[in-house]
Design brief:
This protein has 300 residues and is mainly beta. It is built from four helices and 15 strands. It has two domains: 4-168, no CATH class; 172-296, Sandwich (Immunoglobulin-like). 11% of the residues lie in helices and 39% in strands. A hairpin with a 6-residue loop joins β3 (71-81) and β4. The longest helix is centred in the middle third of the chain and has 13 residues, at 185-197.
Length: 300
């Protein structure tokens, strides 16, 4: 497979990154005792491993630390840079302490340096690893192309390869405490359902989606807007230049809002927020607010 040539006698097992199996949708064994679990070396059934490589894999597997019950883990080994493409070939053990075999699907992985800074991210199809036996450790190489890397230099010791739990948990509603206090539980649940039905965000996309808009008697425009964050990190908004356009493409209102305190939207989450345009920022005329959109504009 070409995979074996990546593993060498000089390799050493580094940082282990473990999560509870339920975070990947895998059911563990209820009532399992708290004893640590040793994982045994496992090869893909299609592999024909040369004897010398078996020696190397066994040596590395013996360095692995026990896992807690019902865990899935990625144990870092080494990174080799592809000379021509500058891609990083990341060697690791995929480990399971479950009592049953598992097969995983599409999962985003992160490379994190010793300072807990993300330096790469990419989604991988874990089905290629095949079925992972109970209490096992399977060596694998994850290739991160140059376009997936945030840095050029290979990290120093202490780096790790980890499951992206933020992407695994799915997109969620990020409801501010003031909204939680004001909205009844049924209205909060309704917002959760609306968020679930919104179009999926692209990676690192920030989107503004209209929720509700109404012209009040004082001719101000009150809008509730979903601020949607597709990033793996929270975004902080200090000032927001915003315009509202109705169903016919007519400009309804335009203004800039300073947010104090800063409005924070959690990673992979949607936060509803209310913006009020006073009369002087609202255009004259009649508007069709049966459909409308919110757009971020360039600061004037």
């Amino acid at each position: 497979m070409g995979l074996f040539s990546f593993f060498k006698k000089t390799d050493k097992v580094g940082t282990d990154s473990a999560i509870d199996s339920k975070d990947l949708g895998q059911k563990g064994t209820e009532g399992q005792n708290a004893n640590n679990v040793d994982t045994k070396l496992s090869f893909h059934p299609d592999w024909h491993v040369p004897q010398e490589q078996k020696y190397i894999f066994n040596f590395l597997a013996n360095e692995l630390q026990p896992l807690k019950p019902n865990q899935l883990s990625l144990a870092a080994i080494n990174i080799e840079v592809e000379p021509n493409t500058k891609a990083w070939n990341v060697k690791a053990f995929v480990r399971s302490s479950l009592n049953q075999a598992i097969q995983l699907g599409e999962i985003e992985l992160l490379l994190i340096d010793k300072n807990d800074q993300q330096i790469a991210s990419k989604s991988f199809n874990f089905a290629e690893l095949g079925s992972l036996p109970a209490k096992s450790a399977r060596p694998w190489v994850f290739t991160f192309e140059k376009s997936t890397l945030a840095v050029e230099e290979v990290p120093e010791d202490g780096w790790k390869i980890a499951f992206n739990l933020i992407s695994l948990r799915g997109h969620q509603l990020d409801l501010d405490e003031t909204w939680k206090k004001q909205l009844p539980k049924d209205q909060q649940d309704a917002l959760v359902n609306i968020v679930k039905k919104l179009p999926k965000l692209s990676k690192n996309e920030v989107n503004f989606t209209g929720l509700q808009a109404k012209i009040h008697d004082d001719k101000s425009l009150v809008t509730s807007i979903f601020i949607r964050n597709g990033n793996n990190k929270a975004i902080n908004i200090e000032q927001l230049p915003l315009e509202i356009v109705d169903a016919n493409g007519t400009l309804v209102a335009k203004g800039s809002f300073r947010l104090d305190p800063v409005l924070s939207v959690q990673p992979n989450s949607t936060k509803p927020w209310t913006f009020i345009f006073p009369e002087e920022l609202v255009s004259e005329g009649d508007f069709d607010l049966s459909r409308w959109s919110a757009r971020v504009t360039q600061k004037q």
